[in-house]
Amino acid sequence: MTAVVAESLTKRFGDVLAVDDLSFTLQPGTVTGFLGPNGAGKTTTLRMLLGLTAPTSGRSLVLGKPYTTLDRPALSVGAVLEATDFHPGRSGRDHLRILCRTVDLPDSRADEVLKIVELQTAAARRVKGYSLGMRQRLGLAGALLGDPELLILDEPANGLDPEGVRWLRDFLRAFASTGRTVLISSHALAEVAQTVDQVLIITHGRFVVESSLHELTSRVGGSVRVRTSKPEELKEALHREQLEASSDQQTLVVRGANTDRVGEIAFNAGVPILELVAEGSSLEEIFLDLTSELSS
Amino acid sequence: MIAQLKSELLKVRSTRTTVGLFAGMVGLTVLIVLLTGLLTHPDDLVSKHDQRGLFAPSAVALIFSGLAGVLLITSEYRYGTIRPTFLFTPRRGNVLSAKLIAGLLTGLVFGAVSLSLAIGIGSLILSARGIPSTLSGSDFAVLIFGGLAGTALRGAFGVGLGAILRNQVAAVIALLAWDFVVNTLVFGLAPSVGRYMPTPAADALMGLKTPHLLSPGAGGVVLLAWTAALALIGLALTLRRDVT
Ligand SMILES: Nc1ncnc2c1ncn2[C@@H]1O[C@H](COP(=O)(O)OP(=O)(O)OP(=O)(O)O)[C@@H](O)[C@H]1O
Ligand SMILES: [Mg+2]
């Protein structure tokens, strides 16, 4: 069964066509980045998937059914749309216990997820006193209550400090490594580049790109930074494969290839690799290129 | 449905909002009974009508039950918790039904406490001042059951109003303006129409005998009709509207 299916999803707010005939399918076990600049229609799309907003036309299925017809969907789908959806005067634990009640989960489940998101010590405090990072984690804890197989998060990294972003990345990787599905939106490609294996990029409610991260990098000629103890030999090997590299001492920057390709070439040439990175900044450039093309 | 109700009741208990309203209601009830009981001339505390007025500080419990109902739902929209609520229970009718019941129960508790305080303190004052009790057992029965039914319905009434308006400030103002301005004006200017308004209907339900009021039974039917109308409109809108 597919995890998520969108069929010609369309949402119009008066004159604004927020989401324009969007169709896509997410297979189970994939981690998908849903990307686009501000106002692209990401949140609106997620709201439609989750039954909060009715599409003007089109439809969507989550785990094979429209979300609103799932029986106790929280037991299979975890979702967070806003990082701030808490009553400030209520404790984090009570917030979770309230959600537990609706699906007959025991209160102890609230404490389990608080542990997962490392909020145990703040659990009894009122949310009023939580930092933004703590609220993000509490929101995530709510999504995890039902031990879902699909996680849908709208801009979960918003407002997190670098440590928080890393924590989230590690968490999502661990979550996905158990074969579960993740759909996470972001307005910055670099933010999710290390977490996702495919991207959906939209702007003005329409797709610009729908591909794996690898394809994306190679297709638009992203660059790879590689550090090696034998730069000259690697440069030659790359040259034989029609790839140009600029070098600065031990570090080469290869354009028009992805990390898989460069790694294989180096391996075949018997060149030791000390470091191999898809360049984040160039990913960001790709993203800006793609999204501004349609905007202009 | 039971699960959702448990969740709604924990929502009510886990913040200070309802507790604060409850405390406010208790304080005002006690104050009004004390002032009325101690300062009113004994001659004006003898008739059944006077004593009902003393024991039924209706406005306070009715207002606070309505407010508690309004906040039960508008605070979800205000703080965005409506999103997780609907994500966990996408059948919005279940959420609203559970909230209506939670509103009824909250109103019931408010009414029970308010009536106990008013009747308890009021009776003590009467006996301390040597004024005989003139209300019969059946008068008390109407006062108590009508009062409980009235405040319970008002809790659900507030939920319905809040579901329609969603905005907390707007809903609180609407409730207060309706009670204090609209009801009073219409009842004052055209009592034959005004007695069908929610507050006069609730007064009638408790057996108050202010001129022009309906009978307790008719008052109950009218208040129930208002509550059902608000609840149904609120339900229809909640099912249709986008949550953003
Ligand atoms: N409730 C609404 N009423 C009117 N217009 C809306 C509403 N919600 C969204 N829009 C419009 O729809 C478009 C898409 O908004 P949406 O919030 O889905 O974008 P987004 O991709 O999530 O952006 P961001 O990165 O800023 O969160 C925007 O032009 C926005 O102004
Ligand atoms: Mg958004």
Describe this structure in words.
The complex is a heterodimer of chains A (296) and B (244). Chain A is 36% helix and 27% strand. Chain A is α/β, with parallel strands linked by helices. In chain A, helix 2 (92-102) crosses helix 3 (107-116), helix 3 (107-116) crosses helix 4 (132-144) and helix 8 (231-240) crosses helix 9 (259-269). The two termini of chain A are 39 Å apart. Chain B is mainly alpha-helical and 244 residues long. Helices cover 81% and strands 0% of the residues of chain B. Chain B has one domain. In chain B, helix 6 (92-128) packs antiparallel against helix 11, helix 7 runs parallel beside helix 11 (216-240) and helix 10 crosses helix 11. The mean pLDDT of chain B is 94. Chain B is globular, with a radius of gyration of 19 Å. The two termini of chain B are 25 Å apart. The interface between A and B is medium-sized, with 33 and 26 residues. Bound molecules: adenosine-5'-triphosphate and magnesium ion.
How are the SSEs ordered, and which strands pair?
The complex is a heterodimer of chains A (296) and B (244).
Chain A: E1 4-13, E2 16-26, E3 31-35, H1 42-49, E4 57-62, E5 77-80, H2 92-102, H3 107-116, H4 132-144, E6 150-153, H5 162-177, E7 181-186, H6 189-193, E8 198-203, E9 206-212, H7 213-219, E10 223-228, H8 231-240, E11 245-248, E12 251-255, H9 259-269, E13 273-278, H10 280-295
Parallel strand pairs in A: 3-7, 3-8, 5-6, 6-7
Antiparallel strand pairs in A: 1-2, 1-4, 8-9, 10-12, 10-13, 11-12
Helix pairs in contact in A: 2-3, 3-4, 8-9
Chain B: H1 2-13, H2 16-39, H3 48-55, H4 58-79, H5 82-88, H6 92-128, H7 137-165, H8 168-189, H9 191-194, H10 198-205, H11 216-240
Helix pairs in contact in B: 1-6, 2-4, 2-6, 4-6, 4-7, 4-8, 6-7, 6-11, 7-8, 7-10, 7-11, 10-11
The complex binds adenosine-5'-triphosphate (ATP) and magnesium ion.
